[in-house]
Amino acid sequence: MKLTFRIASACVGFALLASPALAADKVRWKLAMSWSSTLTPFATACNNLAKSVEEMSGGNFTIRVEGAEKHKAALGILDMTKGGQYEMGHSASYYWKGKDISSVFFTTVPFGMNVDEQNAWLYRGGGMELMQKAYEKFDVLSYPGGNTGVQMGGWFQKEIKSLDDLKGLKMRIPGLAGEVFAKLGVNVTNIPAGELYTSLDRGTIDALEWVGPGMDIKMGFHKIAPYYYTGWHEPATELQFLVNKKAFDKLPKEYQAILVTAMKAAAADMYTDNFADSADAWAQMKTEFPNIEVKEFPKPVLQAMKKAADELYDEYAASDPFFKEVLDSQRAYMKKARAWTNISEFNYIKTTQELAE
Predict the structure, then answer these.
(1) Residue 353 within any structural domain of the chain
(2) Is 67 exposed, middle or buried (0-12, 13-18, 19+ CB in 10 A)?
(3) Could you give the number of structural domains in the chain?
(4) What is the chain's alpha carbon radius of gyration, rounded to the nearest angstrom?
(5) Which residues, in sequence order, are CB contacts of 138 under 8 Å at separation 6+?
(6) Same structural domain for residues 263 and 138?
(7) CATH assignment at residue 65
(8) Same domain for 54 and 143?
(9) Is residue 142 located within the same domain as residue 159?
(10) How far apart are CA 349 and CA 107, in angstroms?
(11) Annotated binding-site residue numbers
């Protein structure tokens, strides 16, 4: 076996050594993505998953990955996984807020936890249990599918100097952040990834947010919207693997363990890939794309966003007991975790940056 430092392949190696005899059942699954097959590193996570499952099962368990260009339903992944057209899906939980508003918490929420805090909440703070509780009604299982970390605040065709500049703006922005912007007068829409550039170019929208420089530059948004704003709305965007529960329950126990292990490894690899790609692209921007103007939203605009977000949280919590349960869980964990984040990560960056200056 070829030695590699990628987590997914490392897990494969250990699994093969530990499990020389696996069930002989041949299992053939399909996985539908919200993204095209060429959209890396999102699609890469699914391909890594499929490769790991096949290797760990000795070729007996295979997963065929299909992008949005194949199934033509980028925002229909939950329904297709629930209905059994696909045994698995890869998407983002906040796309389903119209079905269950609590789904937003399992991607990310405005002014929420960073990636380390959110991962700790998921795996050690009760987040996974709450996520499975949320998806029980859909007869699917949900697992973390790879994090992007802090996302950028979006590409705008005009500079945002005040709240007045947001009024009437047409913007693609999903999740609870879209509702925050709607409160501030933005005309919000959600458009699949494959239609973003064309929509911005043709004036269907005036602004959009996608991910970060590693993915955004490849999409070409900087050619038609030069103002690039820093983030506030998606501090730890976790994608998701969806699994049809009936199909999962039919798997031999060995295959269930293989699948769960491979999903966790693929998610970890995606976060590393996304961070590295964005670091490379950020360095590129200074020399290759000098027309990009990196901006921060003015403080009064950010304060209005925060106020609108808090109002939304309180409104939903007052009418939805489960939303309140998840909100309370995240708030409590964030309060505890942020104290450590401030004294560790934030303090380290702040003090070493001061030395560099």
Answers:
(1) no
(2) buried
(3) 2
(4) 21
(5) 78, 82, 99
(6) yes
(7) 3.40.190.170
(8) yes
(9) no
(10) 26
(11) 151, 172, 209-210, 234
Residues 66 and 181 reside in one and the same domain: no
Q: Which domain holds residue 192?
A: 154-233+289-319
**Per-residue confidence in pLDDT tens, the chain, 357 aa:** 333 434 444 454 444 444 444 556 799 999 999 999 999 999 999 999 999 999 999 999 999 999 999 999 999 999 999 999 999 999 999 999 999 999 999 999 999 999 999 999 999 999 999 999 999 999 999 999 999 999 999 999 999 999 999 999 999 999 999 999 999 999 999 998 889 999 999 999 999 999 999 999 999 999 999 999 999 999 999 999 999 999 999 999 999 999 999 999 999 999 999 999 999 999 999 899 999 999 999 999 999 999 999 999 999 999 999 999 999 999 999 999 999 999 999 999 999 998 987
| Binding site listing for Na(+) | 210
pTM above 0.85, yes or no: yes
Same domain, 112 and 93: yes
Please answer whether residues 50 and 65 qualify as being in contact, where contact means their C-beta atoms are separated by less than 8 angstroms: yes
Strand partners, 62: 28
Provide the annotated binding site for substrate: 151, 172, 209, 234
Residue 335 within a domain: no
